[in-house]
Design a protein that fits this description.
Elements: H1 5-26, H2 31-49, H3 61-84, H4 87-109, H5 116-131, H6 139-166, H7 169-190, H8 194-226, H9 231-238, H10 241-252, H11 259-274
């Protein structure tokens, strides 16, 4: 199974959406409350649309529940990484490590062995992504980011299989975000932050809904693409969001766009060419 130009362009659009909601999260006052708030916002957005669509096949429900549980770790590590490190560093580490793990597991466990040209493209893109992160940084930021790379690979594989089993990837996405919002809200309350979450959401509900809508759109497009192309190719294309994140962090977060990051962008673009854009 190859990847077509329309699917490629759709995934690149999803990458822009993903980078955008991460910039919102990074700019938040309290990273944990912001992450939970966006999760709740995405759940509300999903619940508005989900009842009007056919339910995903029951075979996908275990995948959906498993992904919602794994996403608890995702948001914990995401908040930790953004607390201790810049977006332009932590984001590439998190997003760059995941696709390589997905490609390896996809080849071994799912039998999705990529042709040589696609493999070269994946390696070049991942190398470029990780090059964004070179330099000295807080080891706490590094630890959270590397841990999240493993989590990202895990939920990507889970949701890739879940979307395929669902027969309705859009519905699967919406019900996932609804479940994820509930799970994250319960997790925050269990940590004794229920009142803080409620107060934060009341003050920032517009940001939460916008961020939630961006997250739903980004992941929905990616899961739809995984039903049309190998999971590994979609995963690595989605992580070109680091280019958008670098540009957005320069404009909105006042982080520096260095010469090294420009070279890394070139490596990512060469990888995309190798994937036949």
């Amino acid at each position: 199974m190859d990847i077509s130009l329309p699917v490629t362009l759709a995934v690149l659009g999803a990458a822009l959406l993903h980078a955008s909601w991460n910039v919102l999260l990074k700019s938040g006052d309290d990273k944990e409350l912001e992450s939970i708030s966006i999760a709740v916002g995405s759940g509300l957005v999903a619940l508005v649309a989900a009842p009007f669509l056919p339910a995903p096949a029951s075979a996908s429900w275990p995948w959906l529940v498993g992904s919602a549980v794994v996403h608890i770790l995702y948001f914990i590590f995401l908040a930790g990484a953004y607390r201790w490190g810049e977006l332009s560093y932590t984001y590439p580490v998190m997003r760059g490590g995941g696709p390589m793990i997905v490609a390896l597991v996809g080849a071994i466990a799912l039998g999705e062995i990529l042709p040589m040209k696609e493999t070269i493209g994946v390696v070049m893109i991942c190398a470029g992504i990780l090059a964004f992160a070179a330099g000295r940084h807080d080891p706490r930021a590094t630890g959270f980011a590397i841990a999240n790379a493993v989590v990202i690979a895990t939920y990507t594989l889970i949701d890739g299989q879940g979307a395929r089993a669902s027969g309705a990837p859009v519905s699967y996405t919406l019900w996932f975000f609804a479940a994820n919002g509930i799970v994250l809200l319960l997790f925050g309350c269990a940590r004794g932050r229920g009142r803080a979450i409620a107060a934060y959401f009341r003050r920032k509900w517009t940001r939460a809904v916008i961020g939630g809508a961006l997250a739903v759109g980004a992941y929905g497009i990616a899961l739809w693409a995984m039903t049309r192309a190998p999971i590994a190719l979609v995963a690595v294309l989605r992580e070109t969001s680091v280019i958008f994140a670098a540009l957005l962090s320069t404009v909105f977060l006042r982080e520096k766009m260095t010469r090294r990051r420009l070279v890394a962008t070139g490596a990512v673009m060469c990888g995309l060419i190798a994937l036949r854009i």
